[in-house]
Amino acid sequence: MTPRKMTTTLARLLSVYLPVAVVLVVMLMPFYWMLVTSFKTYKEMFDLSVSPFFPTMPTFEHYVHLWSKTKFPTWLWNTTYVAVSSTAIAMVISILAGYSLARLRYRGNSFLSLAIFVTYLVPTTLLFIPMAEVVSQLRLLGKTEALIAVYPTFLVPFCTWLMMAYFRTIPVELEECAMVDGATRWQALWKVTLPLAIPGVVTAGIFAFTLSWNEFIYGLVLVTRESARTIPVGVLTRLVQGDLYFWGPLMAAAFLGSVPVAVLYSFFVDQYVAGLTAGAVKG
Amino acid sequence: MGANTFGDVSLARQRTLGTRLHIWFWRDSTQGYLMVAPGVILLALLVAYPFFLSLWLSMTNKTVGNPGVFVGLSNFTKQWQSQIFTQAFWNTLNYTAVTTVFKLVLGFAIALLLNREFRGRQFVRSSMLLPWIVPTVLSTMAWLWMFDSNLSSINWIARRLGLVQKGYPWLTDPAWAMASVMIVNIWRGIPFFAITILAGLLTIPQELYDAASIDGAGRLRRLVNVTIPLVMPVVTIVLIMSIIGTFSDIQVVYALTGGGPTNSTHVLATLSYRVGLQSGQLGQGAAISLYMFPVLLLMVILEVWHIRRSNR
Q1: Which CATH number fits the domain that encloses residue A195?
Q2: Going by C-beta distance under 8 Å and a sequence separation of 6 or more, which residues neighbour residue B135?
Q3: Cα B281 vs. chain centroid, distance in angstroms?
Q4: Which of A46-50, A53-57, A261-265, B224-228 is predicted least confidently?
Q5: Which residues in chain A have their CB less than 8 angstroms from residue B34's CB?
Q6: B48 contacts on A by Cβ (under 8 Å)
Q7: Model pTM score
Q8: Does residue A20 have a pLDDT over 80?
Q9: Is the predicted pLDDT of residue A17 greater than 60, yes or no?
Q10: Is the CB of A116 less than 8 angstroms away from the CB of B39?
Q11: In a domain, B63, yes or no
Q12: pLDDT at residue B126 above 70?
């Protein structure tokens, strides 16, 4: 290698690969500790003389404990049940609303679009105190179903907005042809436009699922029985008690609770990124 | 014959009514209202109604088990004079301002880095987003472990490197605890900035850079005169969304410090939870959370204004 070429390689190494490596290590570090700790015995965790980087005697005891001695399997089921149901409900509502706002002309259309957008920007922490009241008026307080009723409130605005943008990219002419041939509005939506909007539906659906899976404050406030809780809330209330941390099961739970969304995300990276940037980047 | 005519007329009239109803039902506007109705009803019932209920609650002295009476704005004034509240209020502003600056600068830098060609770029880009994807309270548990007073892995490394003797007081000292909370928020928020800004960078046509180069612009000039102005609209929206999210954040603080040590890291959201639901003073809690409203409203106005302007 010529000296000149070596300098450029070195420069590239320093200006691209080194910073990329640093960024990657920092961003993934907590997951590494989570995983490593979950396989360590307590003896090793508390022994400051050994290197904390690798478990010397890997153990599954924390996973076994988590699975058999805590309600983790129930929390896992609850989280799945809530995330799937609220995503399904939110998607039906959002597809209809998004189609209506993007395609059909009527009085109040632009006002409603704006109103739905504004609710997208209302954070859950502004509403959780009165929400407990509203949910108890609906006779749902304490039940897992309360979350299925409430989660669509923060999913629908985003998904509607996304679906609106997506429907606008599909040519109206296709529907008009179908309707000239006698299709109703609903048939045009269901048979012509929606099949073409599947990528948008997938993006919105993944987003909705992830947001529901990760939700915390409503899960904490609206559900009280331990067996009705979702993973983030169950883990935090059961495995952290005052100053007592059950580090082993805690790290195992943090890992297992992250896996489903991480796996889903890995299959749909492009759709997820499209959704993430949809609000900010046009075209 | 007369009766017959009468019957025919009535039938015809019925038909017209039926047809008119049919036409009315299948009109675009009727269908439009029908399709948007479920969403509007949901948001009216579970966003608008709770919001107004919150306004009402904040003006009563309602507690759990006591219906309460109207007390005007006294909850707001009482909170404003409370020391814990003022601390939480400033913490919230501080938390938002500091983390936003870091997220913007680091996120922008990472976006520029990821915009370059290198091996494994796709992999780096997708794994970068993990902190943003996974449940925040769960990843915060990993940080809690890394910040533990005795067992912290960060402290272990720092001690081995000879930087400190005993280790940093991450969550036990008020200033360090605030810094810890900020670190976790920055760590979690960077991917959103980086990936979104990167998406903005990718829409900038290469010709503009080429033209700038021909005009003799160096790397810095191209950054200042081409990249930054063109990516500004994206940055604005990312900033607004991030400020809303951070200003109203509860998860990181709740999971990491719970507002401690001695209430030094409370933000408005954690304090409203503590006062409103843990102590059961619903009126006070609602008032605390409503102190978030002016900043949130400002952000919403900015965002709507920005979108209107860029759509024109």
Answers
A1: 1.10.3720.10
A2: A213, A214, A216, A231, A232, A257, A258, A261
A3: 26
A4: A46-50
A5: 100
A6: 119
A7: 0.92
A8: yes
A9: yes
A10: yes
A11: no
A12: yes
Range of the domain at A12: 3-59
User: What are φ and ψ of residue A240, in 5° steps?
Assistant: -120, 115
**Cβ distance of A126 and B289 shorter than 8 Å:** yes
Q: How many domains does chain A have?
A: 2
d(CA A106, CA A85): 31
Is B139 close to A115, i.e. CB distance below 8 A?
no
Please state, in angstroms and rounded to a whole number, the distance separating the CA atoms of residues A136 and A221.
12
Digit-coded pLDDT (tens) for A61-86: 999 999 999 999 999 999 999 999 99
**Within-domain flag for B22:** yes
Last residue of a domain, one of A35, A59, A83: A59
Q: pLDDT tens digits for B97-110?
A: 999 999 999 999 99
User: Do B133 and A262 count as a contact with CB atoms less than 8 A apart?
Assistant: yes
Task: Find which of A33, A125, A258 to mutate to test the B interface (most B CBs within 10 Å of its CB).
Answer: A125
**CA-CA distance, B216 to A40, in Å (whole number)?**
58
Q: Across the interface, do B299 and A121 touch by the CB < 8 Å criterion?
A: yes
Best to test chain B binding among A99, A277, A282 (most B CBs inside 10 Å): A277
Same domain assignment for residues A221 and A86: yes
Q: Which of B23, B28, B137 to mutate to test the interface with A (most CBs of A within 10 A)?
A: B137
Q: What is the CATH number of the domain that holds B198?
A: 1.10.3720.10
Contact partners, residue A47, CB within 8 Å, separation at least 6? none
Instruction: Tell me if A256 is assigned to some domain.
Output: yes
Q: Mark which of B28, B58, B88 sits at the end of a domain.
A: B58
B151·A265 Cβ contact <8 A: no
Q: What's the rounded Cα separation, in Å, for the pair A74 and A79? A: 9
Contacts of A254 in chain B (CB under 8 A): 138-139, 141-142
* CB contact (8 A) between residue A269 and residue B126: yes
In one letter, which amino acid is A26?
V
ipTM of the complex: 0.93
